[in-house]
């Protein structure tokens, strides 16, 4: 909801230029509390490539307008080469971006309306570079709020998971392919807008090619991964994520490894700010941010240091066919928590047997999963909240080895990361294993709780993978994503193991048969034995934000997620529609929109038919000005190579003014 009871009135600077040392000018929008020029205030910087003038204009006004109303200067800067900023954006988290960020912080702190203290704030990209800039220890920086971000660019980002290639790598590369193709606004940059646009179209490049050149954890990924040296981050950090987001693990690692003041918050949300996102209840997140900024940037004691280190949403019974979630908040004063104790199960004869019980004789079990296992897994990182969440896991379990507990005699709380030890062999030199834990209701409905995947060639680490010796047993541990789940009495816990998980992850080069030796297989659940009075936690309130600028909805958003199995051709496809609303910003008479189509397919269970295709179309219009871009990326593979084909077309009105194609082949590196 909007909050009209602001403490201070707000003055908006629609655009100002921040000039870098090399002469490149970056575009900034600033929300100032009334009177800040006479009585300087701390500033909050969000530094991202998602276009302050249009795509993020409404959201930015709601957030930074709220911060300004509470006595902070809100500053939104377009990264070099994005939005209205000059230059070319050639990749994510490059040294140039971080160097520019340091200059921006110095510029903000030197402004007459700034007290000299700056906080870094952002979701996803802005959450990443907030941590990365903090690790460089700029003196102007007072605190960080990092939402939906990662400390490890290889092991826990949109590109790879467990050494497996995520198809979100293709999806995300295509998103940035579309963003990088967009023109600046002629109202802001003037007549040179077309030259800037053409420079971007020619120079931004095909990022997925760069990412597929680095299929193991090398220097490319170590750069800007703050896990390389957690001690470099010395300012207070609030780390936030959601269970439907792809980045919830980061919160737990930061709480474990950072030394300074820190707070972790994980709720029932996807890849959204917690006052905006579902599928679970939203909160007064911006109010929580103001508490943090007041304490660390203004020196007002808001008792944030008395808060529990970690506060998370404990999932309760859920229906995987509905987007709603139930549960409640729990907290741990410290992380790791002494309230978390391992609960062990042995794998035997389709059962999960408590560690203290006799599991019976060891078995040898095999599985060669169909490619359909994963079609109902949802997205690695949920953006849409309704269409891209995992469905009933019974749709997947027929192609997996499954192991169930007996119905539980009492409730069991799980908080943290489960681990599965496997004694496993494969009949091919490259193989992956996917592991899922589900909550089985008394009616057998299966809700996925958490999952993990591992490229078995990465069993000893991601820096130096080694091919498997077919038929040789290996002992490996698969770590699943962190989670908080209450399993109710009468429910069962299911462990499912498969040899593929398409299209969430790209499969091995050819079909693989895995063999498990159950004597060496264990599941360890992080059982929570509450030692903290969760009922005493203060409410996180109802969402507040600044008023939304005047706008007109020209066409609504469209979200679809459809699995199609053509029995005549035996082609299977997952079709995704992810169209944003088409909106007119009334104050600047600008209309813009984005249409996205994704398709992941295969035919006849043949691995050489795997195909991912993503198309983005973006439009901008004002009066006689009409600019449009269409990007298309196709990823396929053979046993030995990945193949990328891409096109980029740009139009003014009906006239195509730019066109470029790519046809790239890269060798598979044990992926």
TrEMBL record:
Annotated signal sequence range: none
Sequence ranges assigned to domain Xaa-Pro dipeptidyl-peptidase C-terminal in this UniProt record: 290-546
Assigned keywords, A-Z: Hydrolase
Pfam families in the cross-refs: Peptidase_S15 (PF02129), PepX_C (PF08530)
GO molecular function, one term: dipeptidyl-peptidase activity
Domain of life (superkingdom): Bacteria
InterPro entries: AB_hydrolase_fold, CocE/Ser_esterase, Galactose-bd-like_sf, Xaa-Pro-like_dom, Xaa-Pro_dipept_C, Xaa-Pro_dipeptidyl-ppase/CocE
Keyword check for Coiled coil: no
Keyword Hydrolase: yes
PANTHER family assigned to the protein according to its UniProt record, in alphabetical order: COCE_NOND FAMILY, PUTATIVE (AFU_ORTHOLOGUE AFUA_7G00600)-RELATED (PTHR43056:SF10), PEPTIDASE S9 PROLYL OLIGOPEPTIDASE (PTHR43056)
Protein name: Peptidase S15
Organism name: Ectothiorhodospira haloalkaliphila
